[in-house]
TrEMBL record:
<dbReference type="InterPro" id="IPR000073">
    <property type="entry name" value="AB_hydrolase_1"/>
</dbReference>
<feature type="domain" description="AB hydrolase-1">
    <location>
        <begin position="25"/>
        <end position="254"/>
    </location>
</feature>
<dbReference type="InterPro" id="IPR029058">
    <property type="entry name" value="AB_hydrolase_fold"/>
</dbReference>
<protein>
    <submittedName>
        <fullName>2-succinyl-6-hydroxy-2, 4-cyclohexadiene-1-carboxylate synthase</fullName>
    </submittedName>
</protein>
<dbReference type="Pfam" id="PF00561">
    <property type="entry name" value="Abhydrolase_1"/>
</dbReference>
<dbReference type="GO" id="GO:0003824">
    <property type="term" value="F:catalytic activity"/>
</dbReference>
<dbReference type="InterPro" id="IPR050266">
    <property type="entry name" value="AB_hydrolase_sf"/>
</dbReference>
<dbReference type="InterPro" id="IPR000639">
    <property type="entry name" value="Epox_hydrolase-like"/>
</dbReference>
Length: 271
């Protein structure tokens, strides 16, 4: 792991491989290790930069000036400037896709392509917005993720049969949720408010002309295929790919399928 400091706060990131640069953004409540199966293959052909989102993995809490996902996209751009990277492609899953779209909008001339996976760049639907903010308030107040809430949150990330198909993956995520305690729990909820209180970028994203791939797990509960279809329809010339037998973290539930699709797309972009 490498480090980069912004206003005294330290961001940890992975920098692996050589070649054209791919910037990968992980899901809320996960970290850079979420991309391990993809990095194993992609890093043989590309230089992969994977920051840990603020308050996730080994990264510190967000700097005071980082108030929303546009600000976070600028933080990632600062990292890329620090590494003297002029052009890059973005692969973002969930919140990674949300800030990834913001990064593409901030630096369109530097962004070669964009992959939006299990994400949504519109407003959070009102009912879910209220539900998520209530959960965040509870976690911040008690400074841990209560067991009943872990029972609700965990299945949201996976296909319906995940407990049987991939018990180790589900168990590891449950364990991770249980480990979020104290100030970290508060800091993580602050990031959650940025995620679920994000702005609507649909009108801006319609202006993008870069190669774009929209990917979604067919059983994704928080970010259902309908949302992915809306983004695909809004982004002219985008490709659309549905991952069978997968939920929100489709890259870990169907790693071979997802890796092959990402590699094929990037190879076309960089041909």
């Amino acid at each position: 792991m490498n480090t980069f400091t912004i206003d005294t706060q330290t961001m940890h990131y992975v920098d692996i491989g050589e070649g054209p640069v791919l910037v990968l953004g992980h899901s809320y409540l996960w970290d850079n290790e979420m991309w391990a199966p993809q990095l194993e293959v992609l890093s043989l052909h590309y230089r992969c930069i994977v920051p840990d989102l603020w308050s996730h993995g080994r990264s510190d809490a967000a700097p005071q000036k980082t108030q929303n996902l546009q600000d976070y996209a600028r933080d990632v751009l600062s990292l890329l400037d620090h590494l003297q990277i002029d052009s890059f492609s973005i692969i973002g899953l969930s919140v990674g896709g949300m800030w990834g779209a913001e990064l593409a909008l901030i630096a369109p001339e530097r962004t070669k392509s964009l992959v939006l996976m299990d994400t949504f760049i519109g407003f959070e639907p009102e009912v879910m917005h209220a539900k998520y903010f209530a959960m965040l308030d509870t976690i911040a107040q008690v400074q841990h993720v209560p067991e009943p809430m872990i029972d609700v949150i965990t299945p949201m990330f996976f296909a319906r049969n995940a407990e049987q198909a991939n018990p180790a993956l589900v168990a590891k995520f449950r364990e991770h949720l249980s480990s979020i305690k104290g100030q970290q729990a508060v800091d993580v909820t602050n990031i959650g408010r940025m995620v679920f209180g994000r702005r609507d970028t649909f009108d801006d994203v319609e202006q993008l002309t870069l190669p774009t791939l929209v990917v979604v797990g067919v059983q994704d509960m928080p970010r259902p295929p309908l949302e992915a279809q809306l983004m695909h329809d809004a982004i002219d010339g985008s490709q659309f790919f549905v991952v069978q037998d997968a939920g929100h973290i489709c890259n870990l539930e169907q790693p071979a399928v997802v890796t092959e699709k990402l590699l094929s797309f990037m190879n076309d972009v960089h041909a």
